[in-house]
Design goal:
Elements: E1 14-19, E2 25-30, E3 34-40, E4 46-53, E5 59-64, E6 72-77, E7 82-89, E8 101-109, E9 116-121, E10 129-134, E11 138-143, E12 154-160, E13 167-170, E14 181-185, E15 197-203, E16 208-214, E17 224-227, E18 236-241, E19 245-252, E20 266-274, E21 281-286, E22 292-297, E23 302-307, E24 312-317
Antiparallel strand pairs: 1-2, 2-3, 3-4, 5-6, 6-7, 7-8, 9-10, 10-11, 11-12, 13-14, 14-15, 15-16, 17-18, 18-19, 19-20, 21-22, 22-23, 23-24
GO biological process, one term: cell division
Main location: other
WD repeats: 7-39, 274-306
């Protein structure tokens, strides 16, 4: 396994790196308030194709929408806002600039009264949705009713937690037998405040999101959280970045669906727990098949984990 370095040219700490659906485009964001977009050439080299001042505070997260909605990214910031940006191929104001690409802010989501700590687009099968969470413990879900007009977004749902929110993850896999699911993590450092991971499910009967589970075994601050893509498993996998790496299985219990709410009960088990970073873990991310997990921590290493019918084992370290 080889590693390639990219001089991102940010002037402050880089908080997030996100790849698009195909892995050929990359976005970075930083405390310098800038977002940069990179494209990969045929030789595997990355070159910058976009750079702009996105916020008036540190930019915490950047994420790509599914390509069927166009070249769209969302960002969130310490300035208490989240923004949706779209890449435009301009006609050029002067000769020679035809076809020049630039990014345009389509909307500015300003409902939060505190720092917006994470932003994620929903699964494409649900339409164009974006979820945000903030330091005041509020999760908001917005919808673009017309995907051809990204300037119009409506606040569809608002869920309030008792703890500050640090990260969220949509479950990319759902079907008619199991409702849409969202996991939210908290970076609250007080262990006595209980579990720091919350599971929400959407009820088709009530058309509302409801908190169905709290992972009481995770009492340390959570910095990142990620559902694995599900290709045929009868259960869901959730990776958690806290003082170590944890992998949790969420198995829908048969015949447990509540007829009134439409929600299912889950059998939640801690499948794996790794302290190989010997430090705080900041990011966890699955590959597209949900079979390999990557984690990064304060030890300066990226570690890969692969499950073989469970349990997971470590792969090469970068």
């Amino acid at each position: 396994m080889s590693a390639h370095s990219v001089n991102a040219e940010h002037k402050d700490l880089i908080h997030d790196v996100a790849y698009d659906f195909y892995g050929k485009r990359m976005a970075t964001c930083s405390s310098d308030q800038f977002v940069k977009v990179w494209d990969q050439d045929e030789q595997g080299n990355w070159y910058m194709t976009g750079s702009w001042k996105a916020h008036s505070g540190s930019v915490w997260k950047v994420t790509w929408a599914h390509p069927e909605f166009g070249q769209v990214v969302a960002t969130c910031s310490f300035d208490r806002t989240a923004c949706v940006w779209e890449e435009i191929v301009g006609e050029g104001a002067v000769p020679g600039e035809e076809g020049l690409r630039h990014w345009v802010r389509r909307t500015n989501l300003v409902d939060s009264r505190t720092s917006v700590t994470d932003v994620k687009f929903g699964p494409k099968s649900m339409g164009l949705l974006v979820a945000t969470c903030s330091a005041d413990g509020i999760v908001r879900i917005y919808e673009a009713p017309d995907i051809m007009n990204l300037a119009q977004w409506t606040l569809q749902h608002e869920m309030t937690l008792k703890l500050s929110c640090s990260c969220l993850s949509w479950n990319p896999s759902f079907n008619r037998l199991h409702p849409p699911m969202l996991a939210v993590g908290s970076d609250d450092t007080n262990a006595s405040s209980g579990g720091k991971v919350f599971i929400y499910e959407y009820s088709e009967n009530t058309h509302r999101w409801a908190k169905t589970e709290t992972l009481s075994t995770v009492t340390d601050a959570v910095h990142d959280i990620s559902f694995a893509p599900n290709l045929g498993r009868s259960f869901h996998l959730l990776a958690i970045a806290t003082k170590d790496v944890r992998i949790v299985t969420l198995k829908p219990l048969p015949d447990s669906s509540n007829a009134q709410s439409g929600l299912m009960k889950l059998d939640i088990q801690m499948t794996a727990q790794f302290d190989d970073h010997y430090s705080i873990v900041w990011r966890v991310c699955w590959n597209i098949t949900g079979t390999i997990l990557a984690s990064s921590g304060d030890d300066g290493c990226v570690r890969l984990w692969k499950g073989q019918f469970l349990p997971f084992r470590i792969l090469p370290v970068v």
